[in-house]
Amino acid sequence: MQKPLLSILMPLLLELLYGTAFSLCSLATFGGLFYRKVKHPVLFPLLFGIVNVLLCLVQQLLLGALLPSVMVVFHTIAAFLLLTGRKWDHLLSLVMAEIFSMSLISSVQMAVFAITKGGERGFLAVTLLYALIYAVSVGFVYFLQWLVRSDDREPLGKLQMLLLTGVTGAVTVYNLRNYGSSLYVPDVSLEAALPAVLILMSASVLLLLSVKTEQAERFRALNAMSETYMTAQARHFEQAREADTEMRMLRHDMKNHITVMNGLYAAGKTEELGAYLKTLGSSFAEMQAVNSIGSEIADAILAEKRALAESKGIRLLTDGSLQGLDISAVTLCTVLSNLLDNAIEATGEGQEITLSARRSGSFYYLCITNPTSEPVPVSGDIPTAKPDSAHHGLGLKSVRKAVEKCGGTLELSCKEAASGDQFTAEVLLPARN
Q: By the 8 A CB rule, do 196 and 114 touch?
C-alpha cells in the first residue's frame, strides 16, 4: 500500500514544485531580467503550484495525459491579469519570460540527470533530484538578476528578449530531440550535460551583453548632454563676465551720463533727453537679462538657447524664477534643452517663445509655449515631421523619462489661439523643502 501511495503522491509533489519554480523563474525573469513592471508576487508562485496540481489531476481524469501547454496558458493569463497591470505591451515580454524559464529548467534538468545518471537511481532519489533542479533553476535566475542589477537600467528591447529566448529555446529543442527523456525518470548520457551547460552560459553572456550595451549607449547620451551643459555654462559665464565688465564701465561713466542729461534738460531738449534715457535703459536691461531666472544651470542653458533663437530671428521671453529647484544639473539640462530646441525648431522668424516658471506648493511649474505652423496631434509621444523620424522624437521621450524619474510630470497640448496654433509643454518638478 505504501509504494502505490508514494507513486501517486510523488508526481503530485513534483507538479507542485515545478509549477512554483516555473512561476518564480518566469516572474523573476520578467521583472528582474527583462525589467518590466510587475506587482510583488509574494504568494502567487506557490498558489500557482497548487493550481498546477489541480490542472494535472483534471487532465489525467479527462484526457489520461498531461499537456504542459495548459499550465503555461493558465499561468500567462493569471499573471497578465493579476501582476502586470494588464498592459498589452507586457504580454509578449511575459510569454518570452515563460519560454526562457521552461528552457532554463529543462537545461538544468538535463545537466543534473546527465551528470548524476538519474535513470540508475530509485524513485525517491529521483524526486529529490527534481527538487534540487527546481531550486538550482530559481537560484540561477536570481543570480543573473544580481549580475545585471543597476539603478539606471533600461528595460530590454524586444529584439534583445527574442535573441535571449531564441538561443535558449533552440538549444533546449536540440537537447530534447537528441537526448530524449521520460516524464519523471530521464535516462540521459553524460554527453547531454555539455549543451545544457552551454545554454546556461549563453544566457548569462547574452544578458550581460544586452545590459552592458544599453548602459554604454546611455552613458554616451549622458556624456553628450553633459558636454552640452558644460558648453552652455561656459558661454553663460563668459556673458556674465562681459556684462559685469560693462556694468562697471557704465557705473564709472555715470558721472558723464548725468552731466550730459543735465545739459539736455537745461537746453530744453526733452526729445533728445528721452532718447538718451531709453538707450541707457536698454544697456541696463541687456546686462540684467544674463541672470534672469534664479538658477545658475537654467541661466546657462537659457543663454545658449536665447542666442540660438536670436540667430533665427526668434525672441525667447522668460518670466518667473526656478530658485530652489531640487533636481540634478543633467536632469534640468535634459528638460530645458530638449523642450527649447523643439520650440525653436517649430517657431518661425519674427515669432516668440515664452518660458514661465513659478513655485506652487512642493512643486515648480515650468511652461514653455511656442507657435506652430499647423496643429500637432497630442497623444502620448509627439510624432516628428522630420525625414529621419527614426532618429528624432527622442527628445520628448528623454524629457518624459527624466521628469518622471525625479518625481515630476510632463503634459503636452496644442490649442488654437488668436494668432494661430500654439504648442505648450507643462512640467511639474519637485521643489526643495
A: yes
Residue 187: its pLDDT value, please? 57
96 Cβ contact list (under 8 Å, min separation 6): 34, 161, 162, 164, 165
Q: Cell triple for residue 8?
A: 501517486
Cell digits for 89? Answer: 505591451
Distance, CA of 19 to CA of 235 (rounded, Å): 62
Residue ranges of the chain that CATH labels 3.30.565.10:
294-433
Question: b/e map of 403-428 (b: 16 or more CB within 10 Å)?
Answer: beeeebebebebeeeeeebbbbbebb
- CATH top-level class for 294-433? alpha beta
Instruction: Kindly tell me if the per-residue pLDDT of 216 is higher than 70.
Output: no
Q: In terms of Cα–Cα distance, which of 225, 426, 216 is closest to 329?
A: 225
Output the pLDDT for position 256.
Answer: 73
Residue 348 binned pLDDT confidence (cut-offs 50, 70, 90): confident
Give the list of residues 6+ apart from residue 145 with CB closer than 8 angstroms, or none: 28, 32, 33
Report how far Cα 375 is from the mean position of its chain's Cα atoms.
Answer: 28
Residue 118: CB partners within 8 Å, gap ≥ 6? 112, 126, 129, 185, 186, 187, 188
What pLDDT does 185 receive? Answer: 46
Question: What DSSP string describes 181-203?
Answer: --SSS----GGGHHHHHHHHHHH
d(CA 59, CA 295): 68
Tell me the per-residue pLDDT of 234-274, one tens digit each, with 9 for 90 and over: 565 556 566 666 666 666 667 677 777 777 778 887 888 78
pLDDT above 60 for 79: yes
- Res 388: pLDDT: 38
Shortest CA distance to 303 belongs to which of 208, 238, 206?
A: 238
Q: Which three cell numbers stand for residue 14?
A: 513534483
Mean pLDDT over all residues of the chain? 76
Identify the three-state secondary structure at position 94.
helix
Q: Once rounded to an integer, what is the mean pLDDT over residues 227-235?
A: 59
Cα–Cα dist 155/158, whole Å: 9
Distance CA 316, CA 214 (A): 36
Is 425 a residue whose pLDDT tops 50?
A: yes
Q: Is 325 helix (H, G, I), strand (E, B) or coil?
A: strand
Residue 224 and residue 210: Cα distance in Å, rounded?
A: 21
**The C-alpha cell that represents 172 in the structure block:** 533546449
